[in-house]
Amino acid sequence: MTRSLVFFASLLVAAGCDRVLDSDVDRPANLRYRLEASGDPEAPAGVLLEWDAVLTADLEVYNIYSRVDDRSPLDLRASTTSTSFHDAGIPDLFYAVTSVTTDGDESDFSEEVFIDERLRLPAPSFLSSTSLDRAIHLEWGDNPFQSDPEGFEQYRVYSSSLDIDVGLCGDDWALEGTTVAPAFLAGALTNGAPRCFAIAAETIEGWESLWSDIRGDTPRPDARNVIIFPFAEDANRSGFRFFQDLNSDGLAGPLELGIIRPGSATDIDFWVFRDPVTDSLFLVPERAGTGVELFDPVRPVEDLTSIDVAPNLTYRTTAIVALPGFGYVFETIGAGGLPQYGALRPTHVGRDYMIFDWAFQTDPGNPELQIRGGLPTAGAGGVLIKR
């Protein structure tokens, strides 16, 4: 749809109004509008009208008129000495402006602006996300821009809290930010705190599209290029624990993440063993309730973030060979006896040491390590919904 549908001829305006206008007085030109987005595509927060100044020495004010439909006459809404006017709330369908001199003479109407909701863009066709450390990376379909490049202005990114146990988004939706690209990094988030996200496309006039599907995701800590040694090589640096939040006396203490410890410790999640015959390295679960499984037993994963949701299965408590590039998921016991999940991807496995990337979900019972496809949505079973 072309942007020419925005304007209607001034003759149509004058035909619906009983006022006597003076054609000798210069009328305002280039009347335009921009809606004020509210997050609800059906209810803009307001409309801002702007027009070019009338360069007349005896100009006193501008009059702003509007009507609710094309069958009603124009009604005087306000007067202003400015070349702009903000109308709060859901706007009327048509607006026009006149100029008034100090003698009380009023110009013809400006061209009438039509607040045309048909200019609204389609909703993004999909929304996916990637869990990161204190952040969530979002990507979505660029079909709104592709449908009307000239009318596209930007994308608006919204988020709210999420109760992951019942699949319910909170009512505290807020604007995370805007972008012209079909991707956005939501940062400064709290690890282990689930969030809902949704995307709307905005036109140059301020029309918001319907929202994309709602997605849920949870930031989690991670780290890159951690080095660890087999027990036979360096026993003091052969053990690893993803996360610890208790002191030895059982009271809540400082959080610790990604802790390298002696392989002889009993409170580590795993330690590294070197087979004396083959020199292969193995990951050995240690702490009670800790198990491990390959994320994909057939092929390596491209990156740590390729390890998405922890598999729902029985995790082995016996040693597993460490293979470079493969993804591993650890199930551990967290607060209240709920499972907590960690991801590990070795980037180098040698005889004397291993280098790996890791991530851990600090929210007990939450299997999200990275959600590329998102949680179920209202469009896919009604599990995740807006409150």
List the helices and strands and how they pair.
Elements: E1 7-8, H1 10-15, E2 29-36, E3 46-52, E4 59-67, E5 75-80, E6 84-88, E7 94-101, E8 112-114, E9 127-132, E10 135-140, H2 143-147, E11 152-163, E12 168-169, E13 174-179, E14 183-186, E15 195-203, E16 215-217, E17 222-228, E18 239-246, E19 252-261, E20 270-274, E21 281-285, E22 291-294, E23 320-321, E24 328-333, E25 339-349, E26 354-360
Antiparallel strand pairs: 1-8, 2-3, 3-6, 4-5, 4-7, 7-8, 9-10, 10-14, 11-12, 11-13, 11-15, 15-16, 17-26, 18-19, 18-20, 20-21, 21-23, 22-24, 24-25, 25-26
Could you please describe the fold and organization of this structure?
With 387 residues, the protein is an all-beta fold. Helix content is 3%, strand content 42%. The longest helix has 6 residues, at 10-15. Residues 4-17, 248-253 and 370-387 have low confidence and may be disordered.
